[in-house]
Design goal:
Structural class: alpha/beta
Helix content: 25-40%
Largest sheet: 7 strands, mixed
Distance between the termini: 53 Å
Oligomer: single chain
Order of helices and strands: HHHEEHEHEHEHHEEHEEH
Strand order of the largest sheet: 1-9-6-2-5-3-4
Shape: globular
Number of strands: 9
Strand content: 5-15%
Length: 363
């Protein structure tokens, strides 16, 4: 907004105009400092008084807070010149987000992945965990392709599968292309009412070859943890000892699509809920793969679900190409050897990371 309004004389804005007629000597506004000035000779009608030229006062510079904005048509110009309020923008963005969610004006893919909800809600929460609570250090991100498909294979641990969620958030934040990791989960995850919906919204799907091949064929990053419940349900005494990788179904999916396999080692998940025992009868009663006993659960009840602040290290290893083995996707020997190569790579990297992190709860 300009310093003057359209149609108004620019010279008359920001100063006090000189009156065209001199007021009478006995006029009340002529008082100054509580007394009337000395008597003046009254002008005759034939000789009009000659007004003494008075230089107009120099206009005061416009203040930053709009104090003299009233002389220039209000305070709107001063307000509009200010930078936008940070919290006002946050509130406006939040209301716009809620309006889109309530009106259904958002997109999900064929698997139910909601990228907007993931960026706005889930990743900020996970970011507090991996960055501030677990103090996670990530290395080797350059081994993850900038575009195109890849199968990210990691070790599983922690009693509760937080390592998969932390890996997906950390990869998205640290990767130069901010790629999403589409996680493959066990059937139990997608049989639980609330957990199933959250898993779908964040990009997860059932760990089966058809879904994995469709995602890889579409150029996505796919994350898999071949140890399954054997990995996250092992005792603390067996920490960082990789369990069997099943039948190598993840290798078959990679071979059929010619997708490189990127092994990743995660240190820190074993200490968040150290499992001291597994109450198997109670697990069978509740139809769970295990019922953990940790130093804080079930002794402290819901407080036992707060993870311990262990120090995390995540390292992505160089990719293992599979494009030259696409004709061997159904060869059990090739599948087993490749799965064993991935497992050994992760296990050796875990040993290296543990040497770098002598204190599980250090800085």
């Amino acid at each position: 907004m300009s310093g003057f309004e359209e149609g108004r004389d620019p010279q008359s804005v920001g100063r006090f105009d000189v009156p065209e007629q001199v007021p009478a000597p006995d006029a009340e506004p002529a008082r100054r400092n509580g007394h009337r000035p000395a008597a003046q000779a009254a002008p005759t009608p034939s000789t009009p008084p000659t007004p003494t030229p008075t230089a107009p006062p120099t206009p005061a510079p416009a203040s930053a807070d709009g104090v003299d904005g009233g002389l220039s048509g209000g305070t709107e110009s001063a307000v509009s010149d200010r930078p936008g309020d940070h919290w006002d923008r946050k509130v406006a963005n939040g209301l716009a987000f809620l309006r889109r969610r309530l009106s259904g004006d958002y997109e999900v893919d064929e698997f139910g992945f909601d990228s907007e909800l993931t960026d706005a809600v889930f990743h900020p929460l996970l970011r507090l965990l991996y960055r501030d609570w677990f103090r996670t250090e990530v290395s080797g991100v350059e081994h993850v392709p900038v575009d195109g498909p890849a199968l990210v294979v990691g070790n599983h641990s922690g009693t509760v599968a937080l390592d998969a969620l932390i890996l997906s958030a950390a990869l998205h934040d640290k990767h130069p292309a901010h790629r999403y990791l589409r996680l493959l989960g066990a059937d139990l995850v997608f049989r639980m009412p609330v957990v199933s919906e959250l898993a779908r919204k964040t990009g997860g799907t059932v760990a089966c070859n058809p879904d994995a091949e469709r995602l890889l064929g579409g150029g996505d990053l796919v994350g898999v943890f071949p140890e399954g419940f054997k990995g996250i349900g092992k005792l603390y005494a067996d920490r960082y000892k990789l369990q069997r990788f099943g039948r190598g179904g993840f290798v078959s999916a990679a071979l059929r699509t010619g997708t490189p396999i990127v092994p990743v080692a995660i240190v820190g998940g074993e200490e968040i809920y150290p499992m001291l025992a597994d109450i198997k009868p109670l697990a069978r009663l509740l139809k769970l793969p295990y019922f953990p006993v940790t130093p804080t659960f079930p002794l402290l009840g819901p407080l036992g679900m707060v993870p311990l602040p262990s120090k995390w290290l995540i390292e992505f290893c160089p990719p293992i190409p599979t494009a030259h083995l696409t004709d061997s996707a159904d060869d059990p020997l090739v599948v087993f050897n490749l799965a064993d190569q991935v497992r050994e790579t992760i296990q050796q990297t875990l040993h290296t990371l543990l040497e770098r992190r002598p204190d599980p709860f250090g800085p």
